[in-house]
Write a structure and sequence with these properties.
homohexamer, mainly alpha, 7 helices, 66% helix, elongated
């Protein structure tokens, strides 16, 4: 049961409808998923979050598929059920095959393991890793 | 201060040296970073962890750079200082530019934000996301 | 399915009933929620946890509503479904409006994002932040 | 050692300087902390993050002090060293006394404890908590 | 709804069946739980994960029950519903009584609380804790 | 730099000294570590936290060593530097050998890995794990 009722398009204010319209146009779909319908109770957060997601997830130095797989990796690390379901769907739509998904999961699992081994053994950062970073590419 | 003293190559058992040799050969380097020198106190964990990392991080359905960027994304989400430093270095070696790093971070930040919005609003998973997954690619 | 069966008032030992009675009296309700009914299998943990919660959540330098909103913020960050549901209800009972809830969520989302940006970029703490803290108020 | 060099005002592009100027004007200070100087390598993230923080942390249904204390609570839950240091300083500037800080920490500690007890005991959400939320205030 | 369909024994490849057979033989059971049936879509991850779990969870310096209780403690800390359910069952099978479970949970709760108090108060590690570790036992 | 100055025994109030005395007597040591000296700024939290730790960590259905190793496991999972250092020291004092520490870490690493695989694959809890728990031992 969500904390606030979902706001459907028919019941939405013009401000919220404008965001819904942009989501559907950007994603080439006629469907709004529950996440946005819940945020719609707070139009400021709805608008800001959508603008940020739209900007961040657009292809740039990384393509859209790589970005969606990173989103899945973070969501699996945080164990957010909703986000794993929605971004696995988005990544598949962007071209993620089952073999790619399996490799994302394998890396996520391994990284979560070695993160704790490094912390638990209190491993100090090697001087080499502290050296000046390379010039901006 | 690490929990156990680092084991250098010169002081390592043949079993540990074999792992060190394979790490250096695989990574085309003559250097072993602290993580492995700490794990070396437990040769079983050292060997198993290295074999897993080697297998998982090799190019497959995803290339090595994408895998390293996912590793950085998970480590930043978990806030593991050692792993952020070492895998950012590894990702750079694999070709990650500063622009790519910036986009990885932007996605990581956004995903961590929306993960909590979805949970905090108790958003229910849309039926569409629960539908049968596509056949294996 | 909980790990242990819920212990209802009618089936509770005098020791557990005394805690249930104090919970109901303190909260001015005649109802015990599942969290306590599960802990009741371990009367020592039940008693200690209730005493701590009672002491900590009582108004002090911070009022009860502020404390409940902080509880919601932590629970959303940890993504604990039970605690988000129960403490959102408690915060509403203490006076949290939907507008306040929306702002709590916005801060929680933002903090989770910048926490990872700060860690991922390995930002060092500014000397100004390391200066001696102010004298006790 | 940060992942990218800090960008000082003197070396900043006009786009970055405009953000720095707005940060200093909004916060009535002549100082930019390291977090923004690191983000400055990615002007898009710098600008978007600052605009979001500015919008979210401004007084609204909640006052600025309450918001800063929630930020500290989230940062302590995530154990982000940089964010704990910077937002504890910000909260103090906004009026947080040592007594208030102590109560924030007590709630944070307790919530982190009961979050795990609820999950570990697999406590099911009470029907009462699933009932329809109150009408928007 | 799992991301990939469960692979039953009857539909499994010889490679997957060999792992299933070893799981059942090692655990003296005729039953495979869903975790492995999902991983079976990626035989490499299935095989590697099972070999690691088998090696790690076998009695060594610690007995099997202690290891299962530590597994429960980590899963409760991470709030992984599946893992809490499956490893609580495994720990019970290995001899964990309700009284032991209650003590595991009490320690998990307390550790999660003090972890945040230590971080939130920015407590520095005592020099005594940084001293050289004892020689290997 | 801690958030509040450490309170030494010589400067402590009688209320704080009483807690310090009990810590030293219980632990058979003449030394107070920084965690308690920081909490001492909030005598209520100091007293409550110490009483809880004392009660929870005393031998019961589990011995003191097992409890300390679980504490280390949780702290490594949360990556709390202070707590890893202090509880690894405490566990060693209680009898943890390097071989035991290595096995704790191996389980912690594995559990953190499979927790994410179970979540990422959205594995559903097996009906067998949902069956009624055994009667109280």
């Amino acid at each position: 049961m969500p904390t606030v009722p979902m706001i459907e398009y028919a019941d939405a204010s013009p401000e919220v409808r404008a965001v819904y319209d942009d989501i559907m146009a950007t994603r080439k779909t006629e469907w709004i998923n529950n996440f946005w319908k819940a945020l719609a109770h707070d139009p400021a957060t709805l608008g800001r979050t959508w603008q940020s997601v739209k900007q961040i997830m657009a292809p740039g130095a990384l393509d859209a598929l790589t970005k969606e797989m990173i989103y899945v990796a973070v969501s699996a690390t945080n164990q957010c059920g909703y986000c794993i379901a929605s971004h696995t769907a988005a990544a598949r739509k962007a071209g993620m095959t089952d073999a790619m998904f399996a490799e994302v999961m394998a890396v996520v699992g391994m990284a979560n393991e070695t993160n704790r081994l490094a912390s638990g053994y209190q491993v100090e950062i090697d001087e080499k890793f502290l050296a000046s970073p390379p010039a901006k590419a």
